[in-house]
Amino acid sequence: MSRDLQWASVTPKRHNHVWIDLPAGIAAVLPPGCVGCGLSKEEYEARQSRGRRNVKRGKHYEHGWAERLGMRQTGGLNKEDDALNELFVGQAKSMASTRFPGWMANELDKLRARWADRIPILGILEAAGQGKKGRRLIVVDEQDWIALHVGDKAEKVIGWIK
């Protein structure tokens, strides 16, 4: 018996929905839907269209992002990269405003207000446990990135660095 309970929390395998149309008398008692999972056709259609809209919106944002950064859009389903050029490869992630890490933008804005003549960057440092190497990221505002790496300003900066 404990062997059967072990699998009780496992999510059931995905399946192809089998829709049945019930006669009017029975449909009043039992709502029509998928035989396997009980999902109604209306719920299924809503989920499908919402998924397609999100993918289309994400591709639109990704295309604009790659274009602004002077990169070629390469992204497709099941690809690790969304855009690249001679020097950089990138992955774009779009998300709702409520999920966007606004605190990062706020920290960059504070630095920009204090040091108007410098480009603000934000270091994200992982506090790894003992014996583990922490990861480190640098966050830069997109406008500053474009100023450094795209177009005329980039040519001046790159020339200055060399």
Could you characterize the architecture of this molecule?
The protein has a domain at 97-162. The chain is built from six helices and five strands, in the order H-H-H-E-E-E-H-E-E-H-H. The chain has helices at residues 2-6, 24-27, 41-68, 102-114, 142-149, 151-161; strands spanning 72-73, 83-84, 89-90, 121-125, 136-140. The strands form two sheets. The chain has a three-stranded antiparallel sheet with strand order 1-2-3, covered by helices on one side. The protein has a two-stranded antiparallel ribbon with strand order 4-5. Helix 5 crosses helix 6. The longest helix is centred in the middle third of the chain and has 28 residues, at 41-68. The protein is elongated. 4% of the residues are buried.
Summarize the structure.
Helix content is 43%, strand content 10%. The chain has helices at residues 2-6, 24-27, 41-68, 102-114, 142-149, 151-161; strands at residues 72-73, 83-84, 89-90, 121-125, 136-140.
Can you give keywords for this protein?
162 residues, two-stranded antiparallel sheet, 6 helices
Please render the helix and strand layout as text.
Layout: H1 2-6, H2 24-27, H3 41-68, E1 72-73, E2 83-84, E3 89-90, H4 102-114, E4 121-125, E5 136-140, H5 142-149, H6 151-161
Helix pairs in contact: 5-6
